[in-house]
Specification:
By secondary structure, the chain is an alpha+beta fold. Helices cover about 55% and strands about 10% of the residues. A hairpin with a 4-residue loop joins β1 and β2 (about 80). Pfam families: MmgE_PrpD_C, MmgE_PrpD_N. This is MmgE/PrpD family protein.
């Protein structure tokens, strides 16, 4: 149950979060924040269209039709309106299905798939303006990034849990709070429920299960449910984060999580969450990006003869992340997109990585190379990681003794121009390229729309 706090009993963390959200909803924001949120939407659209190519799309459509509910919001794949929660679930699951959606490094999470899917669905149900929708998205990224950074900052987080699934509902609830302008008590209750609905483990990284994608949909849907419960009058624990049996203690983070949560709010300006988001160049795990890019460079710069051995060096965070140090057997596309060894060896074999290549779990050449791989972590690279970089090195020794070595300090993140071009290309699989260009231009004009769902009307007309 929410209390505002006083000098003897300081405000709870959810109260502090609610006040930060209020600032985002009411104060003047920089054009930089609006622009970044817009490109997050543009990137999200491309990811959704790519998700339609994946084999579990039919199961997702079947689920959506079973849970159609009241027609309130648009869901890709079924080309029709479903309930707000089902639309958020479907679109978030699709957006993450290629594992190429945006990345917040400190929170180790894919925020856009979850927050944007829910925000667009709510915008249609509640008739938000374009301005409200953008502020909602900025608030959603802010709170998801804040919570993810707090649980991961000290390195004692229980890594069996998946950060995206844990923080996503919190971000969605924040988006709804910002747009709807509810009083602080309701906001605190919504955030408390979102914490209680956090879920997601990492076994999929080894077994190849599709829960990696479904977890995003569940988080997006749960955030909407959290807000609706609070708005209907349900009350949650305002100490859901820092309490004796609250979120931080449940995850093994302890009081440090609460300290980092408060410090983040006090230290950083509004908008840090969305501004820190980056766009991956390859549709695979964040921690396999630099190693794969370096391997592609080796392929492009050198004539590869018979390979005797391959040595990969990355950060401890990359090597230890579930599914990343996986030399096989690899059975699913989920396995190949997580495995650092597969990414490097496929890049050395084909000179690139794409959806077709990630399907080559049983490629003889790639698997032979994987058997010749060594993977180690570097303490020097870990120091660079602490500064926000993800360095890696790949050393290939040929049978004649020639050593080919390439390294990079960080992922070759995409620019906004790259994001736009990729999104247009991805959308153009389903609509004409000219239509895709107009969709992107519509996104750029979102702030001026009296009703944000006009963007969805525009999107539907292009299909």
């Amino acid at each position: 149950m929410a209390t505002n706090g006083d000098s003897k009993h300081p405000a709870s963390l959810t109260h502090l979060a609610a006040r930060r959200i209020r600032q985002i909803a009411t104060e003047e924001l920089s054009q930089q924040l609006y622009d970044k949120a817009t490109f997050c939407i543009i990137d999200w659209l491309g990811a959704v269209h790519t998700g339609l190519l994946l084999p579990w799309k039919d199961a997702l459509v079947k689920y959506a039709k079973l849970n159609r509910g009241i027609a309130e919001a648009y869901a890709w794949g079924i080309d029709g309106d479903v309930s707000t929660e089902t639309a958020a679930f479907v679109n978030a699951t699709l957006a993450h299905s290629a594992i190429r959606d945006d990345m917040h490094l400190e929170a180790c999470s894919h925020i856009g798939s979850i927050v944007i899917s829910a925000a667009l669905a709510l915008a249609q149900r509640e008739r938000w303006s374009g301005e409200k929708l953008l502020r909602a998205i900025i608030a959603g990224y802010e709170m998801a990034a804040l919570l993810g950074s707090a649980i991961r900052h000290r390195g004692n987080f229980n890594a069996h849990f998946r950060p995206s699934g844990l923080i996503g509902a919190f971000g969605v609830a924040a988006a709804a709070i910002a747009a709807e302008g509810v009083e602080e008590t309701v906001a605190v209750n919504a955030l408390g429920f979102a914490v209680s609905m956090a879920a997601g483990t990492n076994e999929w990284a080894w077994s190849g299960g599709t829960e990696i994608f479904v977890e995003m949909g569940v988080a997006s849907r749960a955030g909407i449910a959290s807000f609706d419960l609070a708005n209907a009058g349900f009350e949650s624990s305002d100490t859901a984060l820092e309490g004796k049996d609250g979120f931080f203690n449940a995850l093994g983070v302890g009081p440090a999580g609460a300290e980092d949560f408060k410090d983040w709010i006090e230290k950083y300006p509004i908008g840090k969450g969305v501004l820190d988001v980056r766009f991956k160049p390859v549709a695979g795990c964040n921690y396999a990006q630099t190693t794969s890019a370096v391997a592609v460079r080796i392929y492009q710069k050198h004539k590869l003869g018979e390979i005797d051995r391959i040595q990969i060096t990355a950060t401890t965070q990359a090597v230890k992340y579930p599914g990343c140090d996986n030399a096989g057997p690899l059975n699913t596309i989920q396995n190949t997109k997580m495995s650092i060894q597969f990414g490097v060896c496929a890049a050395l074999s084909f000179g690139k990585l794409d959806e077709d290549i990630f399907k080559c779990c049983d490629d003889k050449r790639v698997n032979e190379l994987i058997s010749k791989c060594g993977l180690d972590a570097s303490s020097e690279y870990d120091k660079m990681y602490a500064r926000g970089l993800q360095p890696a090195m790949v050393e290939v020794t040929l049978a004649d003794g020639t050593v080919l070595r390439e390294s990079a300090e960080d992922v070759p993140w995409l620019t906004e121009g790259d994001v736009e071009a990729r999104s247009i290309s991805e959308q153009a699989r389903d609509i004409s390229k000219d239509a895709a260009v107009k969709v992107v231009e519509a996104c750029k004009g979102l702030r001026d729309l009296a009703q944000g769902d006009e963007l969805l009307v525009h999107l539907r007309s292009r299909r």
